Known about the structure:
By secondary structure, the protein is mainly alpha-helical. It has one domain (66-252): MetI-like (MetI-like fold, Orthogonal Bundle), CATH 1.10.3720.10. It has helices at residues 2-31, 42-49, 56-87, 89-104, 107-118, 123-146, 150-158, 163-200, 206-215, 219-247, 249-252. Helix 5 crosses helix 6 (123-146). The longest helix is centred in the C-terminal third of the chain and has 38 residues, at 163-200. It starts with a helix and ends with a helix.
Amino acid sequence: MAKLREKLLELVPAIVLFLAIMAIWQAAVSWGEIKPYLLPSPRSVLDAMLDTSIDWWGHIWATGLAIVGAFLLAAASGVLLGTMIAWSPVLSRALMPFLVFLNTLPKVAIAPLFLIWVGYGILPNILMGALIGFFPVVINTAVGLSQIDHDMIDLGRVFSAPKWKVFAKIRIPNAYPYILSALKVTATSAVVGAIVGEFVASQTGLGYVIVTSQSSMNTALAFAALIYISIIGLLLFAAVGLMSRYLAPWAEGTDA
């Protein structure tokens, strides 16, 4: 109970700030005579979020699936490539220039190519999210696997441990904090990528809702979709945080 109370107290500043922003927002709309299509009131946004004429659950499901798929693909490919770079200097010299080149490409310009290559649907949105989010995982994985206390490596050599065993027992646990830190960045990047994919071409999803709301100047609907997108991103970020507490409690400052 003491820990729960402590956690709840930690949320008080964020809750107070949120309520203050809502109050200022409502006051600005009510007394500032701001047009609803420029800035809707919090009440109108809430009404839009609860509007049963809109298939919110279908849109949330489509976007959530794209975001989670993008995150998992970025995490898996990033860890694999980062491990390959740390394992072999030859692979590092071969892969790094290509990965840097890929990361510098304008991602929005690549989205139409995904439509040509894989067609319409959720897959191009997943690929877009993964493309935006995988690079930090690659770099942090490679750094985490490489920057390790040499005494630990020497200890493995003293016991004649093969390279793969040193990798599995020493290098990979050492890389956990680096990888998990990158996954927190990727959790937000996957959201951006998936929504960009929905902006380009999609018949469902929260990004599609935002695009269609522009034609009717329904700003409250766009705000409602943005809030749902933020909730999905926050849930994914929180899931990575929980995973960090389990895999690397020493890095999170928590007890195992």
